TrEMBL record:
The keyword Zinc applies. SUPFAM superfamilies: JAB1/MPN domain. It comes from Paenibacillus rhizolycopersici. It comes from the Bacteria. This is Mov34/MPN/PAD-1 family protein. PANTHER family: CYSO-CYSTEINE PEPTIDASE (PTHR34858:SF1). Keywords: Hydrolase, Metal-binding, Metalloprotease, Protease, Zinc. Pfam families: Prok-JAB (PF14464). Residues 8-97 form the JAB domain. InterPro entries: JAB_dom_prok, VirAsm_ModProt.
C-alpha cells in the first residue's frame, strides 16, 4: 500500500488528550480531511462517545454520529485507543473492520508501547499513534501500516 498521510501536530495532540481523558476506557473518534489517492491530510478530529458495553476493551461509535458522518464527503478515517496495549489491530478490531471499511480509508490506533524511545516528541510517555490503510482483497478487508508524518516534521 503506497499511501502517505499528514497528521498535523494540533490534531495529534487533540487525539492524545482525548485518549488520556477517557483512560482507562477506549477513546474513539472520526477523522476528516482530504485524500488524492496517494496522499492525504487529516484536517479535523471529532471525538465520539464510546457506546460499547465493555469500553475498557472495545469501542462502539455513537450510531447517530457515525450515520450522520457517513454523509460527509471529508470522512476519511477513524481513531481509537488501546489504553493498555500496543497500537496494533486486535482480533476485535479486525472482526469489526467490515462495519467501517467501505466508508473510510484510514484507521488510526493509539496505544501504549513498552520502549521509551518510541515516545513521540511532546506526547504522553509510552503512547504512540499508528496509522493503517484499509485494503480490500475481494474477500474482505485488511489493515496495512502506512507512513504518516506530523506536519511539524516529527
Amino acid at each position: 500500500m503506497n499511501q502517505f498521510w499528514m497528521l498535523p501536530a494540533k490534531i495529534r495532540d487533540e487525539m492524545l488528550r482525548d485518549g488520556l481523558q477517557r483512560h482507562p476506557e477506549e477513546a474513539c473518534g472520526l477523522l476528516f480531511g482530504t485524500f488524492d489517492g496517494r496522499q492525504g491530510t487529516i484536517q479535523r478530529y471529532l471525538s465520539v462517545a464510546n457506546h460499547s458495553k465493555t469500553p475498557q476493551h472495545a469501542f462502539e461509535l455513537d450510531p447517530a454520529v457515525w450515520v450522520r458522518s457517513c454523509f460527509d464527503p471529508q470522512l476519511i478515517g477513524l481513531y481509537h485507543t488501546h489504553p493498555s496495549s500496543p497500537p496494533l489491530p486486535s482480533p476485535e478490531d479486525l472482526r469489526q473492520l467490515p462495519i467501517f471499511a467501505a466508508q473510510i480509508r484510514l484507521y488510526l490506533i493509539g496505544g501504549r508501547v513498552s520502549f521509551a524511545n518510541d515516545k513521540p516528541p511532546s506526547g504522553p510517555d509510552g503512547f504512540r499513534i499508528q496509522a493503517y490503510g484499509i485494503d480490500s482483497n475481494g474477500t474482505g478487508y485488511t489493515l496495512l501500516p502506512v507512513h504518516q508524518e506530523n506536519q511539524n516534521g516529527e
